[in-house]
């Protein structure tokens, strides 16, 4: 009986780095969205009250990745990072502009 393998186990080093980069971007955007009360906490299944200061740390790190990796990403990596940034920036603007 064979066990399921992680896709990263069968990847070249470049492919593995690409998958890890995209996982990093996804994880940071999910944490930002969770801290903005836009995504459920995966451990509790509950939404938390927005914590913009915490979310901003993850957003700032994504912004830094975009600057530091400019010109060095594959089209898929660049697209994933751009989409993540659009999503978290829009959500952050919404919570800052929410009067409640």
Task: Write up this protein.
Helices cover 64% and strands 0% of the residues. Helix 1 (13-35) runs parallel beside helix 3 and helix 2 (52-69) packs antiparallel against helix 3 (75-97). It starts with 12 loop residues before the first helix and ends with a helix. It has three helices and no strands. The model has no long low-confidence stretch (mean pLDDT 91). It has one domain. The protein is flat, with a radius of gyration of 16 Å. The protein has 100 residues and is an all-alpha fold.
Task: Name a few traits of the molecule.
single chain, 100 residues, mainly alpha, flat
Q: Can I get a quick summary?
A:
By secondary structure, the protein is mainly α.
List the helices and strands and how they pair.
Elements: H1 13-35, H2 52-69, H3 75-97
Helix pairs in contact: 1-2, 1-3, 2-3
Q: Work out the oligomeric state of the chains in this entry.
A: single chain
| Overall tally of domains | 1
Mean pLDDT comes to: 91
Low-confidence segments: none
| Tally of separate helices | 3
Radius of gyration: 16 Å
Beta-strand fraction estimate: under 5%
Overall helicity: 55-70%
The rough form would be described as flat
* Largest sheet: number of strands, sense, barrel closure: none
User: What is the first-to-last residue Cα distance?
Assistant: 56 Å
Structural class: mainly alpha
Question: Helix-strand pattern, N to C?
Answer: HHH
User: How many strands in all?
Assistant: 0
